[in-house]
Amino acid sequence: MGRIIAVCTSEKKGTRKKNLGTGTMIENFGLAGDAHGGEWHRQISLLAIESIQKMQEKGLNVVPGDFAENLTTEAIDLLALPVGTKLRIGEKGLGEVTQIGKVCHNKCAVYYQAGDCIMPKEGIFIKVLEGGSVQVGDEIEVLSQMIKVGVITASDKGFRGEREDLSGPALKELVRDIQGEVVEYVILPDDQKILADRMRSWSDELELDLILTTGGTGFSQRDITPEATLAVADRLVPGIAEVMRAQSLKVTPMSMLSRAVAVLRKRTLIINLPGSPKAVRECWAAIAPALPHGIQILKGEASDCAGDRPEREQTE
């Protein structure tokens, strides 16, 4: 938990900002009246007062806003926040860290006016997810980092617009239970190469934490979601699919016909779920409690599960 020391804006880019003491965060824009606002990823800049104090100790006559930062903070280690971290700013404002530092190809007016500039090395940038008023003294709370999720609905009819997809939207709601945020959602045909290529792209390029597929896990000749998933797998996670089938067996014996799989690709967990909203909810309820910890381990943010088990189980 940190707090805000200054709220600064400027009418032009590349100049010092003036501390107004208060402002309004606008969703997907930035601070009202600030030249850096807009539909891009560096909507609001943050710099710690501790960084400014280091420059003051070097003899520079600088104050909050002189390095063109929007929000000057205190008692929060900005550089320790990974990209994707959510910040609650004031009572209603919500921002997401999008960039740590920046590259300055040319020295702007800030550099010459202040005598140096520390924003490239010690400043961070956020985009505004939820707007709200912000003022000096407001708290900044670091929220748990959201799990980045991609949802793929595999359906020939859905892809052609002949059937409404209900399972994909259901998953978009369900992932909130694990602090998940669906950043990618698509309906694709039952084509192994198309499905596999999308999973690779979301894992390798977008670095999603979790990819959930719905549909295409049965016996039909066009049901090839498991094959597409296995084609991109580095390692298998059989326990997840086993638990889903066991849970579904309590409802219908037909669940034993599911060929769903769960796999790991690099730092992404990929799970096949059924094609109906009802079955999706049943399976999700069974696996959701374990997913956040598993994803933390995958990302290197937690140790394995042995420490949570009774001593007798650990030695067996």
Tell me what you see in this structure:
The protein is an alpha+beta fold. The chain contains eleven helices and 17 strands. The protein has helices spanning 49-57, 109-114, 119-122, 156-159, 167-174, 192-204, 225-231, 238-249, 277-287, 291-298, 311-315, and strands at 2-9, 18-19, 22-26, 30-31, 44-48, 71-74, 86-89, 93-100, 124-130, 132-135, 139-142, 147-154, 180-188, 210-214, 235-236, 262-265, 268-273. A seven-stranded mixed barrel has the order 1-6-5-9-8-7-11. α5 (167-174) runs parallel beside α9 and α6 crosses α7 (225-231). The protein is elongated and about 75 Å long. Mean pLDDT is 90; it is low at 305-316.
**How many E strands?**
17
Strand content: 25-35%
Largest beta-sheet details: 7 strands, mixed, barrel
In one word, what is the shape?
A: elongated
Question: What topology emerges from the helices and strands here?
Answer:
Blueprint: E1 2-9, E2 18-19, E3 22-26, E4 30-31, E5 44-48, H1 49-57, E6 71-74, E7 86-89, E8 93-100, H2 109-114, H3 119-122, E9 124-130, E10 132-135, E11 139-142, E12 147-154, H4 156-159, H5 167-174, E13 180-188, H6 192-204, E14 210-214, H7 225-231, E15 235-236, H8 238-249, E16 262-265, E17 268-273, H9 277-287, H10 291-298, H11 311-315
Parallel strand pairs: 5-6, 12-13, 12-14, 14-17
Antiparallel strand pairs: 1-2, 1-6, 1-11, 3-4, 3-10, 5-9, 7-8, 7-11, 8-9, 15-16, 16-17
Helix pairs in contact: 5-9, 6-7, 8-9
